[in-house]
Amino acid sequence: MILPYILISPVEKQALPLVFDSPHSGDIFPADFVSKVSKQNLKTGWDAFVGELWQGAVNNNAYLLLANISRMYVDLNRAPNDIDPVLLDTAWDYCQPTKYSDRGMGLIRRLALPDVPIYDQVLSQKQIQTRLDHYYYPYHNVLRQTLDTLHQTQGGVWHIDCHSMKSRGNEMNIDSGLLRPDVILGDNDGTSASAEFVKVAEDAFIERGYHVVRNTPYKGGYLVTHYADVQHNRHSLQIEVNRDLYMNEDSFTPNPNFKNFQTDLNWVSAKIADYVASQI
Ligand SMILES: [Zn+2]
């Protein structure tokens, strides 16, 4: 079996209660994935190189959790029952499709791109359960465990959910056709992280010259809303970075600015780490 994730830990003695995770940085498809969609089209959902971009966070005493499996196989940033019944061979009352499933982007994606269905065939309940048991729950369990342990031992925990976005939305996106800013911070409209924490991240990006927007169009997905509990000092913030800043969006290769952008993200994670260190 393919390992569902990689967890990179900082030197234990200096570890901060700060966890970066990247649920869409995986590009592996397990052998039971059957689709006629081209590799190129399947790559569009990949948050390419996000793990490499944020790897400096570990040197700044944070944890970094990276998914190995493609989000086109199972999307870790969805509720486990956000399943479109149309994908299934039989009815399953477990399914609770949300707006993501309606757009073809639920736990199991129906569409790779607008008008590009992933499957010619229906899936069985067992096939979906396997994706949950082998890949989805192990990722969520290790994230939950890491956050809980840090919260218990240090009294608070700060979680950054890292993503990348196409420079322009397509028809499956709620901002279809529009050019996107450099960075979008999602704190679920001020409810998933303290205002102070969000401001630290925002100021860090602005100081490096980036155009930052909050919550539009991305407020934060399932991970941020599921793991946040601000009243109990558990903060989750989603960071979306524009792919145009670091890669060629057609060829999925790093562009000449990759190293500069990686250096800037290292700097941003250092600022965030300084803030977290000041809170414990
Ligand atoms: Zn993503």
Question: How do the strands and helices of this protein lay out in sequence?
Answer:
Blueprint: E1 5-8, E2 18-22, H1 39-42, H2 50-53, H3 56-59, E3 63-67, H4 99-102, E4 111-113, E5 116-117, H5 125-154, E6 157-165, E7 183-186, H6 195-207, E8 212-214, H7 222-227, E9 234-242, E10 247-248, E11 253-254, H8 258-279
Parallel strand pairs: 2-3, 2-6, 6-9, 7-8
Antiparallel strand pairs: 1-3, 4-5, 7-9, 10-11
Helix pairs in contact: 6-8
The structure holds zinc ion.
Zinc ion is lined by residues 24, 47, 163.
Explain this structure to me?
31% of the residues lie in helices and 17% in strands. It is an alpha/beta fold. It has a single domain, classed as Zn-dependent exopeptidases (Aminopeptidase), CATH 3.40.630.40. The model has no long low-confidence stretch (mean pLDDT 96). Bound molecules: zinc ion.
SSE series: EEHHHEHEEHEEHEHEEEH
| Large-scale geometry | globular
- The proportion of strand residues reads 15-25%
Q: What is the third-level CATH name, the topology?
A: Aminopeptidase
**CATH hierarchy class name:** Alpha Beta
Q: How many β strands by DSSP? A: 11
Kindly state the percentage of residues in helix: 25-40%
How far apart, in Å, are the first and last alpha carbons? 39 Å
The H-level CATH homologous superfamily, spelled out, is Zn-dependent exopeptidases
- Which architecture per CATH? 3-Layer(aba) Sandwich
Round the Cα radius of gyration to an integer and report it.
Answer: 18 Å
Unreliable stretches (pLDDT < 50, length at least 5) are none
The tally of structural domains comes to 1
Query: Quick one: biggest sheet?
Result: 7 strands, mixed
